[in-house]
Amino acid sequence: MFEHPITDVFFDLDHTLWDFEKNSALTFEKIFQENNVSVKLEDFLEVYVPINLEYWKLYRENRIEKSELRFQRLRRTFDAVGTTVSDDLIHDLSLEYIAHLPSFTHLMPHTVTILEYLLPKYRLHIITNGFQEVQEKKLKGSNIHHFFDQIINSEMAGVKKPHPYIFELALNKANVDPVHTLMIGDSFEADILGAKTARMQVLHFNSNKESDHGECHTINNLIEIKNIL
């Protein structure tokens, strides 16, 4: 399946190993209760999830700053569901969301099984667009930090996936030739196309049910990696 032997496997974190949607929902449930925000969680999330993805795309493309991402995704969602929330409260909620999000530790199905399977055979690393202050907490809180050699985030690199530099930085820190690496991630644009630009081999974990493509092999469950590596 792969053109060259693999020595190093790089993973994305959110939506790939760490169950972002489940942990995010639990975080909103907590902060809404604590701040007496009257909104039905299911209705909020139905609107918030696509808006959040939209703003992350803008953030990846350097069209908005981190502060705007954190504020506007909430402002837009509350406006759309017709819940009146002041700007001050949205600011507080955005801070509380980031503070509490890493405290929830649900992983994607079979994450630990696959990491334990891969670790004796390959060096494992993380390349993430997530914010530096929360990604380490997520890894440690969910007890998977010890699996990884290099952990590269976009704030450290100064650019975000799919920019080739973040992949090049990760390859340099791991001291490995890209042809002997495999990038596994959920985002076709950020992880697959980005890593291919850096000459890495790629495997798409399509947890977001993105459209079919012919760029690489696709899996729908991490346990399928056992049949590949």
Automatic annotation (TrEMBL):
Coiled coil: none
Taxonomy, superkingdom: Bacteria
InterPro entries from the UniProt entry: HAD-like_sf (IPR036412), HAD-SF_hydro_IA (IPR006439), HAD-SF_hydro_IA_YjjG/PynA (IPR011951), HAD_sf (IPR023214), PGP-like_dom2 (IPR023198), Pyrimidine_5'-ntase_YjjG (IPR052550)
NCBIfam families in the cross-refs: HAD-SF-IA-v1, YjjG_YfnB
Annotated protein name in UniProt: Noncanonical pyrimidine nucleotidase, YjjG family
Membrane-spanning ranges: none
GO MF annotation, one: 5'-nucleotidase activity
Pfam family, one: Hydrolase
